[in-house]
């Protein structure tokens, strides 16, 4: 059902995208990547960015709660206040070809963000994110300063860590953005586990090894 929202009707494409966005947001909770209403999800439909609203538990969201903004941040759909992290989401859409963004407060990834400036090359799947995953310096949540730090950390990458905060990944679809978030959390957990073994130091991959994997990943998966 297409609902009326803030001056114009929600298109069928937007309604479908909102349904997928809510499902993805709920998945971040179910998979333990966020607690409560922490973290946020967005998806771009044309020049409209649908985004989770601020402070609303995901299990309470309905089709009538669709929340959308233009690329300049002006609200064009819904009456609920968009996520406080809107500056980060919009910065990604303005500077990349992203169609979806997932931001979480995943435990292991957030822990790693407090320890290093870059996730050590513990696993070759770092290549799926474009290379070694950087940590964006800390800035207050919801600020343009944080968005700027994030963009620097994302240069040439599709995901980054946010110091003392969490993760941000993007993709061509919600599924891809989510999978990248889950992969990043897994790599962080792997590094913490390996580096925590007393008396031993985990082996790490070289840049050359990672580059070789990056080339192989270009042809990975089913064709067509």
Automatic annotation (TrEMBL):
Superkingdom of this entry's organism?
Bacteria
Family matches, as Pfam families: Aldolase_II
Query: Which InterPro entries does UniProt cross-reference here?
Result: Aldolase_class_II_sugar_metab, Aldolase_II/adducin_N, Aldolase_II/adducin_N_sf
Give residue ranges for domain Class II aldolase/adducin N-terminal. Answer: 19-192
**Does the keyword field hold Chloroplast?**
no
Q: What is this protein called?
A: Fuculose phosphate aldolase
Q: Which organism is it from?
A: Streptomyces leeuwenhoekii
Alphabetically list the UniProt keywords.
Lyase, Metal-binding
Q: Which PANTHER family match?
A: 3-OXO-TETRONATE 4-PHOSPHATE DECARBOXYLASE-RELATED, FUCULOSE PHOSPHATE ALDOLASE
